[in-house]
Design goal:
Elements: H1 9-13, E1 14-21, E2 26-31, E3 37-42, H2 43-46, H3 56-73, E4 77-83, H4 89-98, E5 102-108
Helix pairs in contact: 3-4
Organism: Pleurozia purpurea
Pfam families: Ribosomal_S11
Keywords: Mitochondrion, Ribonucleoprotein, Ribosomal protein
Length: 125
């Protein structure tokens, strides 16, 4: 089962998928376990322009496009890490599944402040 550099066949079929969902776009990046980017897709690269990039349908189409590229590279199982507050979080997961990938783990890595920056002062009218 071991190959030249200590990488098993199981690790070759696994990859990590990062979904960055903002209010203007959805970016999906597929990496191996070392963090090297293998392929990526965004709503803009799929063909959506302007305000249509932030829709659920655009996120799902982007995920399907990324899943097709991952399958061509030989990946089958994905570990998903979701970041952001955008509209395309659930629909991008649906798109990965429709694209033929098997989701093994889902993690939300959205950064949350522990009451970080001081807000601006109140507006006086």
């Amino acid at each position: 089962m071991q190959e030249k550099h200590g990488i098993t066949n199981m690790q070759k079929k696994h990859c990590i998928t990062y979904i960055q969902s903002t209010f203007g776009n959805t970016i999906i990046t597929l990496t191996d376990y070392d963090g090297n980017t293998k392929t990526w897709a965004s709503s803009g690269s799929v063909g959506f322009k302007g305000s249509r990039r932030s829709t659920n349908y655009a996120a799902q189409a982007t995920a399907e496009n990324a899943a097709r590229a991952a399958i061509q590279l030989g990946f089958k199982f994905v570990e998903v890490r979701i970041k952001g507050l955008g509209y395309g979080k659930e629909s991008s997961l649906r798109g990965l599944k429709l694209g033929g990938l098997i989701i093994t783990k889902i993690r939300d890595v959205t950064p949350t402040p522990h009451n970080g920056c001081r807000p601006p002062k109140k507006r006086r009218v």
